[in-house]
Amino acid sequence: MTTERVDRVSGDVVVVGGGLVGLAAAWRIAGHGGRVTVVERDAPVRFTSRAAAAMIAPVGYREPADDAFLRLRLDAQREWTPFAAELVEQTGIDPAYRRIGSLVAATDKDGLARVVALREFHAELGIESSLVDAAGAARLEPELRGALGGLQVPGEGCVDPEAAGRALVAGIHARGGTVWSGAGVAELCGDATRISGVRLVDGSVLAADVVLVAAGAASCALPGVPESARFPLRAVKGQSVLVADRPGDPLVRTVLRAGINVVPRGDGRLMIAGTVEDGAAPGDRNTVLGAYQVLQRAIAAVPALAGCDVDTWCVGQRPVAPDDAPVLGPSGVPGLWWSTGHSYYGILLSALTGRLVADALAGDAAATVRIGQFTVDRFAAGAPRYTSLDHDRHA
Protein backbone atom coordinates (compact mmCIF):
# COMPACT_ATOMS: atom_id res chain seq x y z
CA MET A 1 0.00 0.00 0.00
CA THR A 2 1.20 3.50 -0.79
CA THR A 3 2.53 4.97 2.45
CA GLU A 4 2.21 8.69 1.71
CA ARG A 5 0.01 10.30 4.38
CA VAL A 6 -1.45 13.69 3.61
CA ASP A 7 -3.56 15.64 6.09
CA ARG A 8 -4.19 18.82 4.19
CA VAL A 9 -7.94 18.89 3.85
CA SER A 10 -7.99 22.28 5.57
CA GLY A 11 -5.87 23.63 2.70
CA ASP A 12 -6.57 24.16 -0.97
CA VAL A 13 -7.78 21.17 -2.97
CA VAL A 14 -8.32 21.27 -6.72
CA VAL A 15 -10.50 18.51 -8.13
CA VAL A 16 -9.95 17.92 -11.84
CA GLY A 17 -13.18 16.61 -13.35
CA GLY A 18 -16.82 17.57 -12.90
CA GLY A 19 -18.46 14.18 -13.30
CA LEU A 20 -20.33 12.62 -10.40
CA VAL A 21 -17.14 11.02 -9.04
CA GLY A 22 -15.31 14.36 -8.79
CA LEU A 23 -18.33 16.32 -7.56
CA ALA A 24 -19.11 13.82 -4.80
CA ALA A 25 -15.52 13.94 -3.57
CA ALA A 26 -15.47 17.74 -3.69
CA TRP A 27 -18.71 17.99 -1.72
CA ARG A 28 -17.32 15.74 1.00
CA ILE A 29 -13.97 17.55 1.04
CA ALA A 30 -15.78 20.86 1.50
CA GLY A 31 -17.75 19.26 4.33
CA HIS A 32 -14.43 18.61 6.09
CA GLY A 33 -13.52 22.27 5.80
CA GLY A 34 -11.31 22.02 2.73
CA ARG A 35 -11.16 24.95 0.35
CA VAL A 36 -12.12 23.07 -2.79
CA THR A 37 -12.31 24.10 -6.43
CA VAL A 38 -13.64 21.79 -9.13
CA VAL A 39 -12.37 22.49 -12.64
CA GLU A 40 -14.30 20.99 -15.55
CA ARG A 41 -13.46 21.53 -19.22
CA ASP A 42 -17.12 21.47 -20.24
CA ALA A 43 -20.06 21.58 -17.83
CA PRO A 44 -20.62 19.33 -14.82
CA VAL A 45 -22.05 15.89 -15.65
CA ARG A 46 -22.01 16.75 -19.35
CA PHE A 47 -20.03 13.78 -20.63
CA THR A 48 -19.65 10.25 -19.25
CA SER A 49 -21.87 10.66 -16.18
CA ARG A 50 -24.81 11.80 -18.28
CA ALA A 51 -24.38 8.88 -20.70
CA ALA A 52 -24.48 6.27 -17.93
CA ALA A 53 -27.36 3.91 -17.30
CA ALA A 54 -26.94 5.01 -13.65
CA MET A 55 -28.11 1.75 -12.17
CA ILE A 56 -27.54 1.39 -8.46
CA ALA A 57 -27.05 -2.33 -8.89
CA PRO A 58 -23.81 -3.86 -7.59
CA VAL A 59 -23.99 -7.49 -8.71
CA GLY A 60 -24.78 -8.66 -12.22
CA TYR A 61 -22.80 -11.90 -12.52
CA ARG A 62 -21.07 -14.51 -10.37
CA GLU A 63 -17.63 -13.57 -9.04
CA PRO A 64 -15.50 -14.31 -5.95
CA ALA A 65 -17.74 -13.54 -2.97
CA ASP A 66 -14.87 -12.27 -0.82
CA ASP A 67 -13.45 -9.91 -3.46
CA ALA A 68 -12.73 -6.44 -2.09
CA PHE A 69 -14.08 -4.78 -5.23
CA LEU A 70 -17.39 -6.62 -4.90
CA ARG A 71 -17.58 -5.54 -1.26
CA LEU A 72 -16.92 -1.96 -2.29
CA ARG A 73 -19.84 -2.10 -4.72
CA LEU A 74 -22.16 -3.65 -2.15
CA ASP A 75 -21.29 -0.91 0.33
CA ALA A 76 -21.70 1.69 -2.41
CA GLN A 77 -25.29 0.61 -2.95
CA ARG A 78 -26.03 1.08 0.76
CA GLU A 79 -24.34 4.50 0.68
CA TRP A 80 -26.83 5.96 -1.75
CA THR A 81 -29.78 6.22 0.64
CA PRO A 82 -28.06 8.47 3.22
CA PHE A 83 -26.12 10.28 0.48
CA ALA A 84 -29.29 11.26 -1.39
CA ALA A 85 -31.09 12.19 1.82
CA GLU A 86 -28.25 14.47 2.92
CA LEU A 87 -28.17 16.18 -0.46
CA VAL A 88 -31.89 16.87 -0.34
CA GLU A 89 -31.67 18.14 3.23
CA GLN A 90 -28.83 20.54 2.41
CA THR A 91 -29.83 21.76 -1.04
CA GLY A 92 -33.51 21.01 -1.51
CA ILE A 93 -32.62 19.36 -4.83
CA ASP A 94 -33.75 15.78 -5.31
CA PRO A 95 -31.07 13.65 -7.03
CA ALA A 96 -33.86 11.28 -8.13
CA TYR A 97 -32.45 8.20 -6.45
CA ARG A 98 -35.17 5.55 -6.41
CA ARG A 99 -35.20 1.90 -5.39
CA ILE A 100 -37.65 0.77 -8.05
CA GLY A 101 -36.24 -2.73 -8.37
CA SER A 102 -34.73 -4.40 -11.40
CA LEU A 103 -35.59 -7.18 -13.78
CA VAL A 104 -32.88 -9.23 -15.45
CA ALA A 105 -34.73 -10.76 -18.38
CA ALA A 106 -33.82 -14.09 -19.99
CA THR A 107 -34.74 -14.77 -23.61
CA ASP A 108 -33.22 -18.23 -24.14
CA LYS A 109 -32.01 -21.29 -22.21
CA ASP A 110 -28.55 -19.82 -21.66
CA GLY A 111 -30.13 -16.69 -20.25
CA LEU A 112 -32.28 -18.73 -17.90
CA ALA A 113 -29.19 -20.58 -16.69
CA ARG A 114 -27.43 -17.27 -16.04
CA VAL A 115 -30.27 -15.86 -13.94
CA VAL A 116 -30.48 -19.09 -11.94
CA ALA A 117 -26.74 -18.83 -11.22
CA LEU A 118 -27.14 -15.16 -10.33
CA ARG A 119 -30.00 -15.99 -7.95
CA GLU A 120 -27.77 -18.54 -6.21
CA PHE A 121 -25.01 -15.97 -5.89
CA HIS A 122 -27.44 -13.38 -4.48
CA ALA A 123 -28.46 -15.93 -1.87
CA GLU A 124 -24.82 -16.40 -0.84
CA LEU A 125 -24.47 -12.63 -0.45
CA GLY A 126 -27.77 -12.12 1.37
CA ILE A 127 -29.31 -10.12 -1.49
CA GLU A 128 -33.07 -10.45 -1.90
CA SER A 129 -34.04 -11.65 -5.38
CA SER A 130 -36.47 -14.10 -6.92
CA LEU A 131 -36.84 -16.01 -10.16
CA VAL A 132 -39.90 -15.23 -12.26
CA ASP A 133 -41.40 -17.10 -15.18
CA ALA A 134 -42.59 -15.56 -18.43
CA ALA A 135 -45.88 -14.49 -16.89
CA GLY A 136 -44.08 -12.95 -13.92
CA ALA A 137 -41.77 -10.99 -16.20
CA ALA A 138 -44.81 -9.73 -18.13
CA ARG A 139 -46.45 -8.56 -14.92
CA LEU A 140 -43.35 -6.56 -14.01
CA GLU A 141 -42.82 -5.20 -17.53
CA PRO A 142 -45.95 -5.49 -19.69
CA GLU A 143 -44.24 -4.03 -22.79
CA LEU A 144 -41.29 -6.45 -22.64
CA ARG A 145 -41.27 -9.07 -25.39
CA GLY A 146 -39.52 -12.40 -25.76
CA ALA A 147 -38.75 -13.05 -22.09
CA LEU A 148 -38.91 -16.68 -20.98
CA GLY A 149 -38.37 -15.57 -17.40
CA GLY A 150 -35.92 -13.58 -15.37
CA LEU A 151 -34.71 -12.43 -12.01
CA GLN A 152 -36.41 -9.73 -9.97
CA VAL A 153 -34.14 -7.78 -7.58
CA PRO A 154 -36.38 -5.46 -5.52
CA GLY A 155 -33.59 -3.60 -3.68
CA GLU A 156 -31.84 -2.29 -6.78
CA GLY A 157 -32.52 1.12 -8.22
CA CYS A 158 -31.30 4.04 -10.25
CA VAL A 159 -30.50 7.73 -10.08
CA ASP A 160 -30.62 10.68 -12.47
CA PRO A 161 -26.97 11.80 -12.82
CA GLU A 162 -28.00 15.23 -14.07
CA ALA A 163 -30.21 15.85 -11.04
CA ALA A 164 -27.54 14.47 -8.70
CA GLY A 165 -24.98 16.73 -10.37
CA ARG A 166 -27.15 19.81 -9.84
CA ALA A 167 -27.56 18.90 -6.18
CA LEU A 168 -23.82 18.35 -5.70
CA VAL A 169 -22.88 21.63 -7.37
CA ALA A 170 -25.34 23.45 -5.10
CA GLY A 171 -23.98 21.57 -2.10
CA ILE A 172 -20.37 22.44 -2.94
CA HIS A 173 -21.27 26.12 -3.25
CA ALA A 174 -23.21 25.99 0.02
CA ARG A 175 -20.08 24.69 1.76
CA GLY A 176 -17.91 27.46 0.36
CA GLY A 177 -16.46 25.56 -2.58
CA THR A 178 -16.33 26.53 -6.24
CA VAL A 179 -17.20 24.72 -9.45
CA TRP A 180 -15.71 26.15 -12.65
CA SER A 181 -17.23 25.18 -15.99
CA GLY A 182 -15.29 25.66 -19.21
CA ALA A 183 -12.06 25.38 -17.25
CA GLY A 184 -9.90 22.92 -19.11
CA VAL A 185 -6.62 21.87 -17.52
CA ALA A 186 -3.55 22.57 -19.68
CA GLU A 187 -1.18 20.81 -17.28
CA LEU A 188 -0.50 19.88 -13.70
CA CYS A 189 2.06 22.14 -12.05
CA GLY A 190 5.08 20.62 -10.39
CA ASP A 191 7.28 17.64 -11.05
CA ALA A 192 7.99 14.12 -9.83
CA THR A 193 8.81 15.44 -6.35
CA ARG A 194 5.52 17.30 -5.81
CA ILE A 195 2.39 18.48 -7.62
CA SER A 196 1.48 21.99 -6.52
CA GLY A 197 -1.57 22.93 -8.59
CA VAL A 198 -2.93 23.16 -12.12
CA ARG A 199 -2.49 25.51 -15.05
CA LEU A 200 -5.71 26.11 -17.00
CA VAL A 201 -5.96 26.53 -20.74
CA ASP A 202 -6.49 30.28 -20.26
CA GLY A 203 -3.08 30.49 -18.58
CA SER A 204 -4.30 30.99 -15.04
CA VAL A 205 -2.78 28.89 -12.27
CA LEU A 206 -4.58 27.42 -9.29
CA ALA A 207 -2.20 26.52 -6.49
CA ALA A 208 -3.20 23.58 -4.33
CA ASP A 209 -1.98 21.48 -1.47
CA VAL A 210 -3.64 18.50 -3.14
CA VAL A 211 -4.77 17.96 -6.74
CA LEU A 212 -7.38 15.20 -6.87
CA VAL A 213 -7.65 13.90 -10.43
CA ALA A 214 -11.12 12.58 -11.19
CA ALA A 215 -11.02 13.11 -14.94
CA GLY A 216 -12.22 9.68 -15.95
CA ALA A 217 -10.54 8.12 -18.96
CA ALA A 218 -8.48 11.28 -19.52
CA SER A 219 -6.90 11.14 -16.05
CA CYS A 220 -3.51 9.61 -16.91
CA ALA A 221 -3.25 11.57 -20.14
CA LEU A 222 -3.27 14.96 -18.42
CA PRO A 223 -0.05 16.85 -19.23
CA GLY A 224 2.18 17.12 -16.21
CA VAL A 225 1.24 13.81 -14.60
CA PRO A 226 4.64 12.40 -13.57
CA GLU A 227 5.58 9.21 -15.34
CA SER A 228 6.05 7.49 -12.00
CA ALA A 229 2.39 8.13 -11.14
CA ARG A 230 0.86 6.83 -14.36
CA PHE A 231 -0.87 3.47 -14.60
CA PRO A 232 -2.70 1.50 -17.32
CA LEU A 233 -6.07 3.12 -17.99
CA ARG A 234 -8.06 2.60 -21.15
CA ALA A 235 -11.22 4.24 -22.45
CA VAL A 236 -14.27 2.13 -23.27
CA LYS A 237 -16.68 4.25 -25.26
CA GLY A 238 -20.40 4.08 -24.57
CA GLN A 239 -23.20 5.58 -26.66
CA SER A 240 -26.71 5.89 -25.27
CA VAL A 241 -29.92 7.76 -25.85
CA LEU A 242 -32.51 9.47 -23.66
CA VAL A 243 -36.06 9.18 -24.95
CA ALA A 244 -39.39 10.55 -23.79
CA ASP A 245 -41.44 7.92 -21.97
CA ARG A 246 -45.13 7.38 -22.66
CA PRO A 247 -47.09 9.92 -20.58
CA GLY A 248 -49.19 8.43 -17.82
CA ASP A 249 -48.40 4.82 -18.71
CA PRO A 250 -44.64 4.16 -18.46
CA LEU A 251 -43.16 1.81 -21.03
CA VAL A 252 -40.56 0.58 -18.53
CA ARG A 253 -41.20 0.44 -14.80
CA THR A 254 -38.07 -1.22 -13.38
CA VAL A 255 -34.37 -1.09 -14.07
CA LEU A 256 -34.63 -3.39 -17.07
CA ARG A 257 -31.70 -5.50 -18.28
CA ALA A 258 -32.84 -7.29 -21.42
CA GLY A 259 -29.99 -7.38 -23.89
CA ILE A 260 -29.62 -3.68 -23.20
CA ASN A 261 -30.21 -1.48 -20.16
CA VAL A 262 -33.42 0.59 -20.14
CA VAL A 263 -33.68 2.76 -17.04
CA PRO A 264 -36.35 5.30 -16.00
CA ARG A 265 -34.79 8.66 -15.16
CA GLY A 266 -37.71 9.68 -12.95
CA ASP A 267 -38.51 12.80 -14.98
CA GLY A 268 -40.52 11.33 -17.83
CA ARG A 269 -37.48 10.08 -19.75
CA LEU A 270 -35.92 6.67 -20.27
CA MET A 271 -32.19 6.08 -20.62
CA ILE A 272 -31.28 3.39 -23.16
CA ALA A 273 -27.63 2.44 -22.58
CA GLY A 274 -25.53 1.56 -24.39
CA THR A 275 -22.67 0.40 -26.52
CA VAL A 276 -19.40 -1.10 -25.27
CA GLU A 277 -16.66 0.04 -27.66
CA ASP A 278 -13.30 -1.06 -26.32
CA GLY A 279 -10.44 0.47 -28.24
CA ALA A 280 -12.60 3.21 -29.76
CA ALA A 281 -10.87 6.46 -30.64
CA PRO A 282 -11.24 9.22 -28.04
CA GLY A 283 -13.98 11.73 -28.66
CA ASP A 284 -17.50 12.72 -27.78
CA ARG A 285 -19.21 11.93 -31.07
CA ASN A 286 -22.13 9.59 -31.59
CA THR A 287 -22.02 7.37 -34.67
CA VAL A 288 -24.59 5.86 -36.99
CA LEU A 289 -23.46 2.36 -36.02
CA GLY A 290 -23.74 3.19 -32.31
CA ALA A 291 -27.25 4.57 -32.80
CA TYR A 292 -28.26 1.47 -34.72
CA GLN A 293 -26.91 -0.92 -32.09
CA VAL A 294 -28.60 0.90 -29.22
CA LEU A 295 -31.98 1.23 -30.90
CA GLN A 296 -32.01 -2.22 -32.48
CA ARG A 297 -31.49 -3.97 -29.14
CA ALA A 298 -33.92 -1.69 -27.33
CA ILE A 299 -36.75 -2.13 -29.83
CA ALA A 300 -36.19 -5.90 -29.92
CA ALA A 301 -36.76 -5.99 -26.16
CA VAL A 302 -39.48 -3.34 -25.89
CA PRO A 303 -41.05 -2.75 -29.34
CA ALA A 304 -43.15 0.19 -28.12
CA LEU A 305 -39.93 2.20 -27.70
CA ALA A 306 -40.01 2.67 -31.49
CA GLY A 307 -42.69 5.32 -31.01
CA CYS A 308 -40.78 7.40 -28.46
CA ASP A 309 -39.37 10.83 -29.20
CA VAL A 310 -35.59 11.16 -28.90
CA ASP A 311 -34.59 13.63 -26.19
CA THR A 312 -30.77 13.52 -26.20
CA TRP A 313 -28.00 11.41 -27.67
CA CYS A 314 -25.22 10.86 -25.15
CA VAL A 315 -21.69 9.52 -25.30
CA GLY A 316 -18.97 8.87 -22.75
CA GLN A 317 -15.65 7.15 -22.13
CA ARG A 318 -15.62 4.67 -19.25
CA PRO A 319 -12.22 4.69 -17.48
CA VAL A 320 -11.17 1.05 -17.09
CA ALA A 321 -8.06 -0.19 -15.29
CA PRO A 322 -6.72 -3.70 -16.03
CA ASP A 323 -8.68 -5.24 -13.15
CA ASP A 324 -11.86 -3.14 -13.60
CA ALA A 325 -11.49 -1.73 -10.06
CA PRO A 326 -11.11 2.00 -9.24
CA VAL A 327 -7.85 3.75 -8.47
CA LEU A 328 -8.15 5.78 -5.29
CA GLY A 329 -5.94 7.84 -3.02
CA PRO A 330 -2.29 8.91 -3.09
CA SER A 331 -0.42 8.51 -6.35
CA GLY A 332 3.05 8.13 -4.87
CA VAL A 333 3.84 11.72 -5.87
CA PRO A 334 3.15 14.18 -3.01
CA GLY A 335 0.23 16.46 -3.75
CA LEU A 336 -1.37 14.20 -6.37
CA TRP A 337 -4.30 11.95 -5.54
CA TRP A 338 -6.48 9.78 -7.77
CA SER A 339 -10.19 9.06 -7.90
CA THR A 340 -10.64 7.43 -11.28
CA GLY A 341 -10.89 4.08 -13.02
CA HIS A 342 -14.44 3.45 -11.82
CA SER A 343 -15.06 1.47 -15.04
CA TYR A 344 -18.69 0.37 -15.48
CA TYR A 345 -19.70 1.46 -11.97
CA GLY A 346 -18.97 5.18 -11.79
CA ILE A 347 -22.43 6.32 -10.72
CA LEU A 348 -22.88 3.45 -8.27
CA LEU A 349 -19.47 4.02 -6.66
CA SER A 350 -19.40 7.82 -6.67
CA ALA A 351 -21.16 8.42 -3.36
CA LEU A 352 -18.93 5.99 -1.44
CA THR A 353 -15.59 6.73 -3.08
CA GLY A 354 -16.24 10.46 -2.68
CA ARG A 355 -16.66 10.01 1.05
CA LEU A 356 -13.73 7.62 1.44
CA VAL A 357 -11.28 9.83 -0.45
CA ALA A 358 -12.40 12.94 1.46
CA ASP A 359 -12.21 11.12 4.80
CA ALA A 360 -8.74 9.78 3.98
CA LEU A 361 -7.57 13.27 3.07
CA ALA A 362 -8.86 14.39 6.45
CA GLY A 363 -6.73 11.75 8.14
CA ASP A 364 -9.42 9.19 8.93
CA ALA A 365 -7.65 5.90 9.63
CA ALA A 366 -10.46 3.57 8.55
CA ALA A 367 -10.93 5.35 5.22
CA THR A 368 -7.17 5.30 4.64
CA VAL A 369 -7.11 1.54 5.12
CA ARG A 370 -10.14 1.04 2.87
CA ILE A 371 -8.80 3.02 -0.06
CA GLY A 372 -5.43 1.35 0.50
CA GLN A 373 -7.01 -1.69 -1.16
CA PHE A 374 -7.36 0.33 -4.37
CA THR A 375 -4.22 2.47 -4.58
CA VAL A 376 -2.20 2.73 -7.75
CA ASP A 377 0.75 0.74 -6.44
CA ARG A 378 -1.14 -2.50 -7.05
CA PHE A 379 -0.02 -2.20 -10.68
CA ALA A 380 3.67 -1.78 -9.88
CA ALA A 381 4.45 -5.48 -10.14
CA GLY A 382 2.51 -5.77 -13.40
CA ALA A 383 -0.10 -8.07 -11.88
CA PRO A 384 -3.41 -6.49 -10.79
CA ARG A 385 -4.68 -7.42 -7.36
CA TYR A 386 -8.18 -8.20 -8.60
CA THR A 387 -9.20 -10.45 -11.47
CA SER A 388 -10.58 -8.63 -14.49
CA LEU A 389 -14.18 -9.72 -14.67
CA ASP A 390 -16.06 -11.21 -17.61
CA HIS A 391 -19.02 -8.86 -17.78
CA ASP A 392 -22.30 -9.67 -19.43
CA ARG A 393 -22.36 -6.00 -20.41
CA HIS A 394 -25.95 -5.75 -21.59
CA ALA A 395 -27.76 -8.23 -19.35
TrEMBL record:
Keywords: Oxidoreductase. Signal peptide: none annotated. GO terms for cellular component: cytoplasm. The keyword Thylakoid does not apply. InterPro entries: FAD-dep_OxRdtase, FAD/NAD-bd_sf. It holds the Pfam family DAO. One of its GO terms (molecular function) is oxidoreductase activity. Residues 12-359 form the FAD dependent oxidoreductase domain. It comes from the Bacteria. PANTHER family: GLYCINE OXIDASE, SARCOSINE DEHYDROGENASE-RELATED. This is Glycine oxidase ThiO.
